[in-house]
Design brief:
Blueprint: H1 3-11, E1 20-24, H2 32-39, E2 50-54, H3 59-67, E3 77-81, H4 89-99, E4 107-112, E5 128-133, H5 136-143, E6 151-156, E7 174-183, H6 185-192, E8 200-207, H7 214-224, E9 230-237, H8 244-248, H9 254-260, E10 263-268, E11 275-281
Parallel strand pairs: 1-2, 2-3, 3-4, 4-5, 5-6, 6-7, 7-8, 8-9
Antiparallel strand pairs: 9-11, 10-11
């Protein structure tokens, strides 16, 4: 977009009429957010309900933007996306203090869990939380500040393993976990013993061969997750000698195919003829050749 066009658009915006705002600094529009803020400070958008801030690389700019939203009574959704930003502890605490001044905030998307562990007051209205880079250790602390959490989506970076949780919000019903760290089945057994209200569970994980055990998943679901209606797995296991039939037959009894109507498939290694990936269909359908065809 030409700068003249950008100025023209900004000149014709009436901040008090705006309810939804999307701001982005990508490779094609560097510095656009700062320019927008100089022309139209967020503090003027007094009827704003939904705001998405993307690709902000400057912690100071992010702090200024959020400070303009302090005590904003109508904001229901705040989304901050992009690469992790280095923020010192003092500024992190200031950012989380601002979040606690938003009485209507229900949906929050955040870049990094390390910014949220400085919370010192609950986000009581918050029901939906997405964290693009989140450690289990940080999540354990964050859980205590979001008592009414209903939906959680997190991505676990490599090298951050499961921890023992002492509390998980009672109403958590939708959970999506994408983990690049090595996972053991018993870690999920411990985790899901604290989430009996789950209705939807989606997992993209890497880990031990036991994660391919359909009988064990069935037992876990029947004993710990009685209300589960949606279940999707995308598992990359350790090297193994299990064929497609070895893995899939336990997932083909009446519990899976009739009662739940959940279906699984395998991606077979061309070198070892063993299961290289187990995934739910159609949720994680692969473009590669998978078994059964």
């Amino acid at each position: 977009m030409k700068k003249s066009t950008f100025y023209f658009i900004c000149e014709h915006i009436h901040p008090h009429q705006v309810q939804s705002l999307f701001l982005s600094d990508d490779e094609h529009t560097p510095g656009q957010i700062k320019l927008f803020m100089s022309l139209l400070p967020l503090i003027k958008f007094n009827n704003l309900q939904y705001i998405s801030i993307n690709q902000v690389h400057d912690a100071d700019l992010l702090f200024i933007m959020l400070s303009h939203l302090e005590n904003h009574v109508q904001i229901q959704s705040l989304s901050i996306n992009g690469y992790p930003i280095q923020v010192n502890k003092r500024k992190s605490r200031s950012i989380t203090e601002i979040l606690t001044t938003l009485p209507s905030l229900e949906h929050l998307t955040f870049i990094d869990s390390s910014l949220l562990i400085t919370l010192q007051q609950p986000l009581s209205k918050l029901t939906h939380l997405t964290i693009h880079s989140c450690t289990f250790n940080d999540l354990r602390m964050i859980f205590h500040w979001v008592p009414n959490l209903f939906y959680l989506q997190i991505s676990i970076p490599f090298g951050h393993h499961m921890v023992t949780f002492d509390y998980i919000p009672l109403h958590l019903s939708f959970l999506i976990i994408e983990s690049k760290s090595w996972t053991l089945f018993n870690e999920f057994e411990n985790l899901f013993s604290l989430t009996p209200s789950l209705k939807s569970l989606v997992l993209t994980i890497t880990g031990e061969q036991d994660l391919l055990d359909g009988r064990r998943w069935k037992t876990l679901i029947k004993t710990k997750l009685p209300h589960l209606t949606k279940f999707a797995l995308n598992i990359t296991p350790e090297e193994n000698n299990m064929t497609g039939d070895n893995v899939l037959i336990p997932f083909q009894d009446s519990f899976w195919t009739i009662e739940k109507r959940w279906h699984m498939a395998c991606l077979i290694s061309t070198t070892t003829s063993s299961c290289a990936r187990l995934f739910s269909v159609p949720h994680f359908s692969s473009t590669d050749v998978w078994y059964p065809p």
